[in-house]
Design a protein that fits this description.
single chain, 222 residues, alpha+beta, 29% strand
Amino acid sequence: MTVALNEAKLAKGVEESQEPLASMVTKYHNNSNLYDNKSTTKTIEDSYTSSWCSSFVSWCLDETEYKGLKQTGSRFYIAHDDEWNKKSKNMFVKVYKPLYGALMVFSDCTKEGVLSSSGHIAFVYGTVKGSNKIAALGGNQSNQLKVTPFDCSGKVFVSWTRKNKAGKVIKIHYKKFRGFYMPKDFKGGVLLGEQNSYKNFKEANLEATTVAIKTNKNGESS
């Protein structure tokens, strides 16, 4: 978690198209082999146009004794096929409480809960008084590296909405929580407590990033 927090402070609350975050995103994707992967047509100029939440998590883990999956898709941490199911189970285990620094994984879905292969992954950071959501520190959250609230009840929730220039909602994006995960060899684990509780998400961001980044409590793109 120390690595992720250092990166959050380095990013200074800017958006992914701005420096220093633009170069940081390229670094995360390079670690996940996005650009030399024959199955993609991505070039280095496409860095921040590709979802980078999973690349950020993998890079952070690779900076420690616990390694990431080097994948740009959060789905690989919960594995949708036999090959990745075997690999992820050898490296990560599901935990049933929000331990500080645990991975929290979500899948995009329909309003009815039909799952998609896309999703989101971030680190458990804390709680906010008066909110039943978990404060997640992650990349690609409203195009920033920041703390964002997420519903971890397991129910389908509105992740974010897209509006036209007139302010009319033209698309609603839904997500569903899939679980908390920890590196298989991780020892210990600290439950969230008063030391991880914040007055609001602005305060949580101020501590995590040193910038009082605004957060939409009703959901943000990821």
